[in-house]
Amino acid sequence: MPASLLIVDDDRDFTASAADFARMRGFQPYVAHSLEQSRQMGHLPPLDLLLLDLDLPDGSGLELLDDPAMPEHEHAVIVTGQPTVESAIQAVSRPVYDYLLKPLCPEQFDALLAQSAAAHARAQAAHHYGMVGRCDAMQRVYADIERVAPSDASVLIWGDSGTGKELVARALHERSGRRGPFVPVNAGAISPELLASHLFGHERGSFTGATHRHPGHFEQAQGGTLFLDEITEMSPSAQIYLLRVLESGSLVRVGGTETVPIDVRVIAATNRDPHATMAEGRLREDLFYRLADYPIVLPSLRERGDDILMLAQHFLDALNARHGTEKRLADDSERLLQRHAWPGNVRELRSAIQRAYLGSDGAIVRVWPTPRRTGIGGVDTDGVVFTIGTSYAEIEREMLARTLEHFDNDRTRTAQALGVSVRTIHNQLARLKRAKDSR
């Protein structure tokens, strides 16, 4: 599908010219000349760009930014011929991507369209490979995939469990143009004694039970991509052998003498901090630098903002399609989904949606995240426990402090997790500081 934009402006000459310009750049343009006409566009698919005039015959264009009747849009840009300080302040406080003045410079409009088209292309590629998300962090991941996939560079994917490392690896393979297969291997699931045999193959009689020659995963991935997950779980001896194979482009099967040339691109992944594992001596530094020609860091789900809601709906849509139902998320699901920390990331969210779907008797699906494991005495290891009689002020103070600590003092993420505004967080911290200073 082409990138799309909606132009909302009562100047018909401007809308016609802007629509023609966008169409020549490969966009599908839509036009509305009033608030009322704009609200009738709710049937449109999600838009990549909303070009919005402030002064419309029936009100201010800013009214449309939070209007549920409007189609979903990636970026909103204000374009006005009558700029005022008041409108600029209002625009800054809203989810507005840019604030432009008429007459609109063609080079400026062209650059805006180019940015939207690039983001649209990345999102389309991501959707094609099973990834869902529009947040800035995921846009950077999509850009990384497009940038490095056609090369022969080794890639190290670093992210928490459940963030989609294998999906990224598959996308890199699909975009690489390599004709061989994609071979995924979980290095942490193979015993250290058998890992060399699995990866590099073995000759007949090389050990008890080796009744015939066995080509390893490297040979199976000839001409394609070998994905080594949990690379930090490999034994030191296997790491040395892997480094030698990567450096030489050839291998010798276990128990053999023949040198076998290989043409394999290696993509590795880990859910641990590779720098910490090197400091601990669990990952060889020379292997790290050989694997990390190009590192890709995946964001945790709690860092992806509204992507949580998008993914939840995506998983529910898939279940509805599979079972021929029309179930929908409960009205209070948004707040609950946003407040949960999702330690299991996308994998946990998918499980929660499926569990809620199967457990719902009617058309409403109410999501309940998996309860956290508890520590000694039944205390939640990632929560706050209060005794009967604790004051509301103390509960509020402790919850704010623990949440800020969890998100490394990031007030925006803390506000999202607690379901309040960033201003509320600032005010609460200021109040607590005044109370402390007055003691």
TrEMBL record:
**Which Pfam families does this chain map to?**
AAA_lid_14, HTH_8, Response_reg, Sigma54_activat
CDD domains in alphabetical order: AAA
Q: Which UniProt keywords apply?
A: ATP-binding, DNA-binding, Nucleotide-binding, Phosphoprotein, Transcription, Transcription regulation
Residue ranges of domain Response regulatory in the record: 4-117
**Domain Sigma-54 factor interaction intervals:** 131-358
Q: Which SMART domains match?
A: AAA (SM00382), REC (SM00448)
Residues modified as 4-aspartylphosphate: 53
Task: Identify this protein by name.
Answer: Sigma-54 dependent transcriptional regulator
- Organism (species): Lysobacter stagni
